[in-house]
Amino acid sequence: MVSIAEIYDRLSPEPLQGDDLKRYYVDSFAGRGDNPMISLKRLLLSKPDGKLQILFSGYRGCGKSTELNELQREISDDFIVLNFSVLKDLDPVNINYVELFVIAMEKLFDVVDKHNIRINPQLFASVSEWSHSVEIEKITKLTGDALLEAGAEVKVSAPLFARFFAKMRASANASYSTKRTIIENIEPRLSDFISHCNALIREIKSHLPESGKKGLIIIIEDLDKLSVEKAEELFFNHSHILSTLQTHVIFTFPISLRHHQKATVIKGNFDEDFELPMLKVHDKQGKPFLGREAMYEIITCRTGTACFEPPELVYEFIDISGGCLRDLFRMIRNAADNALNNEREVITRVDYTKSFFKLRRDYENTIAEKRVNNEVITSVAEYYETLKTLALSTTKKVDNTEAVLDLRQNLCILGYNDEGWCDVHPVVRTILCERFPKEVMPLTLEA
Fold first, then answer.
1. How far is CA 117 from CA 214, 325, 401, in A?
2. Do residues 179 and 186 make contact, with C-beta atoms less than 8 angstroms apart?
3. Which domains does the chain have, with CATH numbers?
4. CA quadruple 14, 15, 17, 22: dihedral positive or negative?
């Protein structure tokens, strides 16, 4: 039996990887109604040495990173996969497109070092020359890490270059003024920088047969977690530049932007577009769907059912999650914490109720008026009217207004596949039931 003290680690919101991926991964695509990963995997394997620029979207908390990790595991015999997160490695609030190339260079040189790839000395010389340009030397004075000091007896190596770009990235994260200086000085030399980046990619790819690989893939995680405004700036204003790397690149893509009026223009600058569907706890008519059982398997393969009293309580957590794995894990962890605080050895309905209200408060706090330059763009009343209209809708279709895009981004509205319908998150629906008691009824799954 798994003790409730173990649940905190067993239901970590971090994506599965390594041994945990092998032990706990559940194929849940029957519950999603579609499996885009099959097509994505086939596409990559059919052109291992290609340079496809791929958008990969899905609602936050639906399991995208775990599915990308599983994809990485399945293709690891054929590809070197370079995976990094903008949340962990960059400043997502003030992210600039130039930084993606800086971190790409850092991680590519890490790949060269890790796989002992012999790089043409001319490439090292070219990057070193670029680093000593007037613009870049302004940056090194701020970061305090010139690549090769004049007269220094330093061996040119991949770790040296990786450290140089890592220091530049870290300095940009630490200070907005430093970031601005870095951006302003790299942009005039950006075409040269991208050229060096692609030259390094070509060098790596030319040596892949020596390591038994066929291709190189870059996966940029957590771009989907950017604000609507920041994501629009990045993908709409700079997508033609983002898509210039000469290898396969998978960009996680915000769900709100997928439904944006500029989505068609953005997608036109990329080669492929995939969406990971939400797990469907119920269908459009309110009848239980296969996603309910898939989520049950995901939970019970990690925790079993003995720590729930009654065991069927697991389904109550699942139903209120709306198919969002992140919320499901959060609720059960909070319930376990409450049980421990009250010296219980199992999670009871009392603990479920406590975690439910905590999650509801979190969502209620996200429904706040939107202001730009101290001017109200979207009021709280407009958000609630939008949610009420969807809750009462029989078609479960919405117009992609600014309010809807915001509500998709903060998960108050969840979208599903098939006919492209969506619905109000079940926990948000309970808020509507209190605000509009004569109009919105609680959601009960039909047998």
1. 14, 40, 50
2. no
3. 35-275 (no CATH), 288-366 (1.10.8), 370-435 (no CATH)
4. positive
Q: Are 112 and 208 in contact (CB under 8 A)?
A: no
Instruction: Kindly state the tokens that stand for 405.
Output: 């895009």
**Token couple for 300:** 């019970």
Kindly state the DSSP code that residue 348 receives in the 8-state scheme. -
State if pTM tops 0.90.
Answer: yes
Please write down the HEC assignment for all residues of 377-411.
Answer: EECHHHHHHHHHHHHHCCCCCCCCCHHHHHHHHCC
Residue 125's alpha-carbon distances to 103, 192, 429, in angstroms, are 20, 13, 61
Q: Say which residues have a Cβ less than 8 Å from residue 37's Cβ, sequence separation at least 6.
A: 29, 67, 70, 71, 276
Averaged pLDDT for residues 348-366: 97
* Residue 201: pLDDT over 80: yes
Contact predicate 95/86, CB 8 Å: yes
pLDDT at position 145 over 70? no
d(C-alpha 231, C-alpha 251), whole Å: 12
Question: Rounded CA gap, 150 and 167, in Å?
Answer: 19
Quote the CA–CA distance of 76 and 258 in Å, as a whole number.
Answer: 29
Q: What is the pLDDT of residues 230-284, one digit of tens each?
A: 999 999 999 999 999 999 999 999 988 888 888 899 999 999 999 999 999 998 8
Q: 3-class DSSP state for residue 82?
A: strand
End-to-end CA distance of the chain: 30
Paired with 424 in beta bridges are: 413
97, 238 contact by CB (below 8 A): yes
